[in-house]
Design brief:
Length: about 150
């Protein structure tokens, strides 16, 4: 079916799907990634809440624990979204990138453009550019405000 409108103008959110290979020794580094993410989860969630432009975010080990995937749905421009997180949680990304192949220069906070370039290199767009949102024009801040008013 042909879409008769420009989807990118009709949707606020966009996806990020970055998948990178884990360095050798792969099994050992996959375990270190699991531990790092588990320990960092409260800080990650705090920073995501503070950002007010991330709808969803998660990590997954893929391909028999040989690749790490980062998946998010967010509001705004790709480059600015990533630069924001390079600056605010750069040390977390440094701790992850030490176990991944082809990492950007570190510390990430000092090299936000290289961090963005790496994300672009390993980002995989949805098939056919298709990304569904149940609330295509609602940024996180609008959703949070509506929920807060509903609770009052």
């Amino acid at each position: 079916l042909m879409l008769e409108y420009s989807r990118d103008r009709a949707i606020t959110q966009q996806p990020l799907t970055v998948v990178m290979k884990i360095k050798a020794p792969v099994a050992e580094n996959a375990e270190k990634l699991k531990t790092t993410i588990a320990v960092a989860a409260p800080r990650i969630e705090m920073k995501l809440d503070e950002a007010r432009h991330v709808h969803f975010a998660w990590f997954m080990l893929l391909d028999n624990d040989t690749r790490l995937g980062l998946f998010t749905a967010f509001d705004g421009a790709f480059d600015e979204y990533l630069k924001h997180f390079a600056r605010t949680v750069g040390p977390l990304f440094d701790s992850l990138f030490q176990y991944l192949e082809d990492a950007p220069p570190m510390p990430v906070a000092d090299h936000p453009e290289a961090f963005v370039a790496t994300a672009w290199k390993y980002n995989t767009a949805p098939v056919g550019g298709y990304f569904y949102s149940a609330y295509p024009l609602a940024p996180v801040s609008t959703i949070q405000q509506a929920l807060a008013e509903r609770v009052k």
